[in-house]
């Protein structure tokens, strides 16, 4: 009995760790840069596939790939913001129009990135095995890769938290998240900060994707589901709250694990039920304003 | 019975009391002024009356009926209309369409489209915007947009009209015209509450004034009484007031 | 009423639309069966685009759930097509989508628009997963067979749905509700303070738009003999109307029609020439349209027309 509970809880944390990393990324993009990046899942997918390619073609350790995916996706996000979204920000008459337009632009990106991925890697399911040996935890068996994934997810979030709390740039980001105009007046180079945030958001997605590829099979069409989950986590944690996304991710991961134990195949439905309950009772989420 | 009555109306934003324990009574047919320095809570009070916001505590009664907890469209249909401090006209719709919207939806009972159109035209004449009938609202001057908002509010056939800084940004000729419009509105039987900073207008048009400061009522009375009130003078001019 | 501008330009366009409709109605008499099938696809895209624009155009709330409503219609046909007559199935397909939209609207439309976007975005995937789970675990069937219907019949039914949709859209647009919808898009707070029951109106119009998508789905289901959730719920169907409406412009009624027409032709062209790239190309089109044509082709044309006629509004 205890073993079962432990199984479910740790599996939930595993899942939650991944959800947390990806949701924090999306929260950076929406909460600060005000872009509802519905192509977020595609960045996750890219991270997963870059890691897969690095492993199967070049034999690079997936954990090392974290250091590859991160910067690559960061660059992609940063450049995208500096070119596409900055241009949209200028041409949109109101902030509301910008949110709408940027969301639609992301919709376009979704199709572009997904189809480019299909062209490069083909549409089939792919996977690789890495560190699948079992580790024993008080009678519950876990494959090493999942434990490492959880560990790295938590480390990534911790590092990022320290970055936000401790560094000057981190503080600038938090200021921009609260009030971009005032932050700009205080000398924060807003355009730069927003672009960096979007880049960091993409980077988190890429890292999340790399971690996912270590534990699960991947497919170029996997992105949509992860985007949905990241959105629900964001609402659960509170729109605009980065720590909220972290907590929300862990919670949703636990829920997913419990539901999968009881009735596999219904986890997405369960997430949506939570979404609906939030909308009815507390749309601002756990830590939202 | 006063047409509008507020008892201990309170609203917080975070930890700050935007409006605190405010009592007020507005009699039918009067022009009631609401003044106070920036941030005193005047627009918040309007928002509480029109249900754009909900009060933390306290009650607001219109014609004896409790209106806190209702939705804005319900309060409008009951007979309370307002204008906004930052003008909210429907920019891409024509001047006529703006007023027509109020005429079509703002009343308790549905009226026929032809009648709504007639009312809209009549109101445009009342505020003096007939020449601009077909122009998109966003192309009007600020002063005219404010008049449009008034026309739209009047189209809902209110018994009580809340005017929020209608004269802000107007030059003195426009202010005189606006004062005349308020008088005409009062003469048509509508009770008016005005938030204003333009003292000339307040003093000349209002029968009674209430002064808010930091969310609390600090004075109330006729313009003469209020302008002589020591607390009010302090608040507006600081301690160095001419005795 | 006096709201709709009966300028000569609008009369011309309406006459054109009427002419096109008559030509379409006669199509099976003079065109090949292949053309009729192609035209049916055009009609499908037009119906979805116009329905989408009916709600999202004036209010500015971007619905990404078109595929969910269309798919719900398809599935209604799949489940009931063997037991009930076609007209009833079509109406039921519309009604089920209508109810689904009422639910979505009631949940999200009283909140900020962003919740609506997020919820509708995931709806397709959700329905897909749920129905798949249901079929695997509860009914034991995966996929169903739909009884086929003659191509010309499908064509005429779709044409009829389109005509009813256009009439509905026109009626709404010219009524006080069209005015109210526009006012909601312009400034929701001012609209509600002017007596418009904003939430109720949004929900109803959204549901009406979903009805037509559901009905269209129920008819089109007869084209695929085999339906399973992955076929019925295709995210591309959510993407296309947005793209078409943006390309064609969302404000005037005929904008999405033009956009849908162009895009169906483009899709057919691209699918045959670049079967592997066409979705990618559409994604690029989407970006280009957002960046350089925020008002769509029709809006662009209007801007040019205004500039060339030198109109400028004098302030009073």
Largest sheet of chain B, in brief, is:
6 strands, mixed
Structural class of chain A: mainly alpha
List how many beta strands of chain A DSSP finds.
2
**CATH structural fold name of the largest domain in chain B:** Rossmann fold
- Classify the helix fraction of chain A into a percent range: over 70%
Count structural domains of chain A.
1
Radius of gyration of chain B: 18 Å
In round numbers, the mean pLDDT of chain A is: 88
Number of helices of chain B: 9
**What's the end-to-end separation of chain B, in Å?**
38 Å
Largest sheet of chain A: 2 strands, antiparallel
N-to-C order of helices and strands of chain B: EEEHEEHEHHHEHEHEEHH
Secondary-structure topology with pairs:
The complex is a heterotrimer of chains A (289), B (243) and C (316).
Chain A: H1 2-32, H2 40-58, H3 62-91, H4 95-121, E1 134-137, E2 140-143, H5 144-166, H6 168-178, H7 180-185, H8 190-215, H9 223-237, H10 242-262, H11 267-281
Antiparallel strand pairs in A: 1-2
Chain B: E1 4-13, E2 16-26, E3 31-35, H1 42-49, E4 57-62, E5 65-66, H2 72-78, E6 80-82, H3 95-105, H4 113-127, H5 142-155, E7 160-164, H6 172-187, E8 191-195, H7 199-205, E9 208-213, E10 216-221, H8 223-228, H9 230-237
Parallel strand pairs in B: 3-8, 3-9, 6-7, 7-8
Antiparallel strand pairs in B: 1-2, 1-4, 4-5, 9-10
Helix pairs in contact in B: 3-4, 3-5, 4-5
Chain C: H1 8-30, H2 33-59, H3 66-80, H4 86-108, H5 113-139, E1 144-145, H6 151-174, H7 176-186, H8 188-193, H9 198-220, E2 226-227, H10 229-232, H11 236-248, H12 254-273, H13 278-292, H14 296-309
Antiparallel strand pairs in C: 1-2
In short:
The complex is a heterotrimer of chains A (289), B (243) and C (316). Chain A has 11 helices and 2 strands.
Textual characterization of the structure:
- The complex is a heterotrimer of chains A (289), B (243) and C (316).
- Chain A is mainly alpha-helical.
- Chain A is built from eleven helices and two strands; from the N terminus they run H-H-H-H-E-E-H-H-H-H-H-H-H.
- The longest helix of chain A has 31 residues, at 2-32.
- The relative contact order of chain A is 0.22.
- Chain B has two domains: 1-71 and 158-243, P-loop containing nucleotide triphosphate hydrolases (Rossmann fold); 80-157, no CATH class.
- Chain B has nine helices and ten strands.
- In chain B, helix 3 crosses helix 4 (113-127) and helix 3 runs parallel beside helix 5 (142-155).
- The N and C termini of chain B lie far apart (38 Å).
- In chain B, 49% of the residues are buried.
- Mean pLDDT of chain C is 85; it is low at 311-316.
- Chains in contact: A-C, B-C.
- The A-C interface holds A 36, 38, 84, 87-88, 91, 96, 99-101, 103-105, 107-112, 114-116, 118-119, 224-225, 227-228, 231-232, 235, 239, 263, 265-266, 268-269, 272, 275-276, 279-280, 283 and C 60, 62, 64, 107-108, 111, 113-115, 117-119, 121-122, 125-126, 129-130, 132-133, 136-137, 235, 239, 242, 246, 276-277, 279-280, 282-287, 290-291, 294.
């Amino acid at each position: 009995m205890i073993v079962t509970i432990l199984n479910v809880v740790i599996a939930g944390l595993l899942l939650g760790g991944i959800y947390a990393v990806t949701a924090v990324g999306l929260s950076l993009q929406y909460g600060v840069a005000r872009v509802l990046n519905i192509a977020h899942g595609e960045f996750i997918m890219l991270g997963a596939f870059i890691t897969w390619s690095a492993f199967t073609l070049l034999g690079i350790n997936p954990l090392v790939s974290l250091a590859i995916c991160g910067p690559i996706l960061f660059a992609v996000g940063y450049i995208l913001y500096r070119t596409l979204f900055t241009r949209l920000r200028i041409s949109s008459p109101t902030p509301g129009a910008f949110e709408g337009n940027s969301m639609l632009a992301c919709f376009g990106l979704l199709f572009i990135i997904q189809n480019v991925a299909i062209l490069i890697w083909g549409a089939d399911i792919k996977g690789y095995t890495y560190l699948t040996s079992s580790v024993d935890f008080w009678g519950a068996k876990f494959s090493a890769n999942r434990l490492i994934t959880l560990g790295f997810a938590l480390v990534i979030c911790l590092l990022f938290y320290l970055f936000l709390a401790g560094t000057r740039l981190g503080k600038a980001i938090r200021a921009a998240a609260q009030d971009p105009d005032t932050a700009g007046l205080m000398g924060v180079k807003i355009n730069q900060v927003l672009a960096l945030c979007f880049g960091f958001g993409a980077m988190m997605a890429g890292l999340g994707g790399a971690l996912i590829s270590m534990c699960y099979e991947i497919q170029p069409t996997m992105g949509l589901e992860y985007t949905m989950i990241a959105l629900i986590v964001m609402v659960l944690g509170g729109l605009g709250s980065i720590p909220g996304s972290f907590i929300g991710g862990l919670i949703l991961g636990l829920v997913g694990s419990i539901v999968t134990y009881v009735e596999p195949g219904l986890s997405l439905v369960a997430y949506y039920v939570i979404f609906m309950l939030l909308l009815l009772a507390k749309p601002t989420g756990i830590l939202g304003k | 019975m006063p047409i509008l009555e507020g008892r201990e109306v309170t609203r917080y934003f975070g930890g700050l009391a935007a409006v605190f324990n405010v009592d007020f009574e507005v009699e039918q047919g009067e022009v009631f002024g609401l003044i106070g320095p920036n941030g005193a809570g005047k627009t918040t009070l309007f928002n509480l009356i029109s249900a754009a916001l909900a009060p933390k505590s306290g009650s607001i009664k219109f014609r004896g009926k409790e209106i806190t907890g209702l939705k804005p469209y319900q309060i409008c249909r009951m007979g309370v209309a307002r204008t906004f401090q930052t003008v909210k006209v429907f920019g891409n719709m024509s001047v006529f369409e703006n007023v027509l919207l109020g005429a079509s939806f703002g009343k308790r009972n549905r009226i026929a489209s032809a009648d709504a159109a007639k009312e809209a035209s009549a109101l445009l004449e009342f505020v003096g915007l007939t020449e601009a009938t077909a122009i998109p609202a966003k192309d009007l001057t600020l002063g005219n947009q404010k008049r449009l908002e008034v026309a739209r509010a009047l189209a809902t056939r209110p018994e009580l009209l809340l005017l929020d800084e209608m004269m802000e940004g107007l030059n003195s000729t426009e202010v005189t015209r606006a004062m005349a419009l308020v008088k005409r509105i009062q003469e048509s039987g509508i009770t008016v509450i005005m938030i204003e900073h333009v003292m000339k207008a307040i003093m000349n048009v209002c029968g009674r004034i209430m002064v808010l400061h930091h969310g609390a009522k600090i004075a109330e009375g006729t313009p003469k009484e209020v302008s002589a009130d020591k607390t009010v003078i302090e608040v507006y001019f600081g301690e160095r007031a001419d005795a | 009423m006096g709201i709709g501008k009966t300028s000569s330009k609008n009369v011309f366009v309406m006459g054109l639309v009427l002419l096109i409709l008559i030509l379409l109605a006669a199509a099976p008499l003079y065109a090949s069966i292949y053309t009729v099938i192609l035209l049916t696809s055009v009609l499908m895209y037009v119906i979805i685009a116009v329905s989408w624009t009916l709600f999202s155009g004036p209010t500015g709330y971007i619905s990404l759930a078109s595929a969910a409503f269309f798919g719900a219609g398809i599935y209604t046909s799949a489940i009931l097509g063997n037991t009930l007559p076609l007209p009833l199935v079509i109406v039921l397909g519309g009604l089920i989508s209508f109810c689904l939209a009422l639910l979505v609207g009631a949940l999200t439309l009283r909140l900020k628009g962003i919740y609506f976007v997020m919820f509708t975005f995931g709806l397709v995937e959700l329905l897909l997963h749920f129905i798949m789970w249901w079929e695997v675990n509860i009914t034991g069937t995966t996929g169903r067979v739909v009884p086929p219907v003659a191509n010309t019949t499908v064509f005429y039914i779709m044409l009829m749905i389109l005509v009813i949709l256009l009439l509905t859209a026109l009626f709404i647009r010219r009524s006080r509700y069209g005015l109210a919808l526009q006012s909601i898009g312009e400034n929701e707070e001012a609209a509600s303070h002017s007596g418009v029951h904003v939430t109720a109106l949004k929900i109803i119009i959204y549901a009406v738009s979903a009805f037509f998508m559901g009905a269209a789905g129920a008819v089109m289901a007869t084209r695929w003999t085999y339906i399973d959730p992955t076929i019925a719920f295709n995210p591309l169907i959510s993407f296309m109307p947005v793209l078409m409406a943006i390309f064609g412009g969302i404000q005037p009624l005929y904008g999405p029609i033009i956009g849908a027409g162009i895009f169906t032709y483009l899709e057919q062209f691209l699918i045959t020439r670049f079967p592997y790239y066409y979705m990618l190309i559409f994604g690029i089109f989407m970006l280009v349209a957002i960046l350089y044509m925020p008002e769509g082709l029709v809006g662009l044309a209007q801007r040019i027309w205004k500039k060339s006629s030198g109109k400028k509004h004098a302030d009073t």
